[in-house]
Amino acid sequence: MLGNTAASLEIGDLPIIPARMRATFNFRKMTRTMKSTRLRIGKWRPNPGSGWELIYHLFRANWIVFTGLIVISAVNAVMYYVPALFLRLVIQYLEADPQRKDTGWGWVYVVGLFSTSVILNISR
User: Which pTM does this prediction carry?
Assistant: First the structure.
């Protein structure tokens, strides 16, 4: 048996979700957004009920979520290439100082390479 099967499903069996994830909250937010905002670019205005107006209202209602998603994606894109940058810096250091007289920057690059690789692998 893979899971617990109940004879019936009752309201007490359901998980409690926060208010911002409930349908009534989202419905109120969308109706407020649709009443208070209108899409207008210069003199152009889309037909009521068109897809352009719906996209605009959805963006206005969820702009914080979209902004957070864009920021996280940008940070993730940069973090993907940072270990390769540190590896290049380590190789440049090894080629520039074959006698290893000044090891300060070498250790900085190695610690940077290690820490960014760990952070990148933890976030996957």
Answer: 0.60
